[in-house]
Amino acid sequence: MKKVLAVLALVVAGCGTPEAANRGGASGDITVFAAASLTESFTKLGKDFEAAHPGAKVTFNFAGSSALAQQLNQGAPAELFASAAPANMRQVTDTGTVKAEPTTFAKNTLQIVVPKGNPGGVTGLADFAKADLKIALCAEQVPCGAAAKKVFEAAGVTARPDTLEQDVKATLAKVALGEVDAALVYRTDVKAAGDKVEGKDFPEAAEAVNAYVIAPLANARNKVGAQAFLDHVVSEAGRAVLVEAGFTAP
Amino acid sequence: MTGVRAGTGVRRARLPVVLVVPAVVGLAFLLLPLVGLLVRAPWGTLPQRLFSAEVGDALLLSLVCASLATVVCVVLGVPLAWVLARSDLPGRGVLRALVTVPLVLPPVVGGVALLLVLGRRGLVGQYLDAWFGISLPFTTAGVVLAEAFVAMPFLVISVEGALRAADPRFEEAAATLGASRWLAFRRVTLPSVLPGLVAGTVLCWSRALGEFGATITFAGNYPGETTTMPLAVYLALESDPDAAIVLSVVLLLVSVGVLAGLRDRWIRGAA
């Protein structure tokens, strides 16, 4: 049975890129706590990784970075933590849950998102000040809302939102349903929403760049696997997956 | 222990351990989280947090919206309960099951459903918007609707139960004495189910006060307009857990106060 598996593994490895073959013997379970906005891209990275490393099994726990940091500090077992913001990573480095230096692996910026066909005729950030348009923003307490605040300050626009949503996906949903004329969400979320919405770039987005950082946990049980998956995320192939999802390179 | 002692003494007080132990665990399970909230509350800074403008706005909005939602529920729910209890409508059983759906539906689903019907692009909402320029999402009226949607089954079930328990012969007697159906309903039926109606109203109001999922999904969140206490608690938790605890304590005290105040007088009478 083992021989059969080994042969199968060789075949699978042979199908992938040769340099991605099983180096360093990474195997076993690798649990990754990752920001919710990484759901699509990390699921893909995990599948690619498992294909290249027979015997490795990557399991994800996707949630808000702040919630994940709290779970890790309470002792949740994991190998890696990928946070949507350095601030949330600091929550675990402060307690010693993570001792390694975090690696920045991707960046995300805000985009204006409008329903398909742009019924509100939104062209730029200035339209967010119009009283007759329905506007949704993330609440300032969550990262996308904090980023939105920064870009409005940079643009000198006083936004007049009709609702301050509790997370980025809820904000996007109001646009996808056509209930609001515009919102600010991450570029990756616009991409993940497909053709129900349209994304528009704006120059002030550069004022609030969100850096994604990843680091292994100090008490990771599968240290070899953790390092191997981290290497995969920052590799050329990993970056390609992230860029495909709408992230920019660090 | 209790079982053994009761066995040797008064027969009436016999409480088998098999029941007492899980009952105590159940009680602890329900009460401990509330105790935790009170223990962790930042009592020192509580007054100044309590009298901040946002808390005042959110509490006032919560109380007003829950009360308006309750009015909507009573005006629509009592006749609905009457139809379910007294009419010989075909498919009444199915209707009764449908009425209780919002009870078990995840409130977020209720919010999505409301958006799809009453939203700007909704089945009904698109005409409200086009003909009258009325848009319900992201308004205080939207909060009232979301709360009424979730809370109405509590009222309907209570009143319907009371109506079924009440003897319809009194209404018939009133009718034979020349009272109209409406007069008989007002002067005979309603007074006889009053405790049930009050109990249902209190339950309905409490449920509306605590409503979160449907509200945030349908009405959104904007301070002073749609940010009710539960929404404020949720968002405060993201940035300032102490503020969330204070808001939670306030909500807890208001709910317990109202339930306790009315319980002795009305709810026990209905049971």
From TrEMBL, chain A:
Signal peptide: 1-20
GO terms (BP aspect): molybdate ion transport
Record: residues binding molybdate: 37, 65, 168, 186
Keywords: Cell membrane, Membrane, Metal-binding, Molybdenum, Signal, Transport, Tungsten
Pfam family, one: SBP_bac_11
Location in the cell: Cell membrane
InterPro entries attached to this UniProt entry: ModA (IPR005950), ModA/WtpA (IPR050682)
Quaternary assembly: The complex is composed of two ATP-binding proteins (ModC), two transmembrane proteins (ModB) and a solute-binding protein (ModA).
PANTHER family listed in its UniProt record: MOLYBDATE-BINDING PERIPLASMIC PROTEIN, SULFATE-BINDING PROTEIN
Function as written in the Swiss-Prot or TrEMBL entry: Involved in the transport of molybdenum into the cell. Part of the binding-protein-dependent transport system ModABCD.
Protein name: Molybdate-binding protein ModA
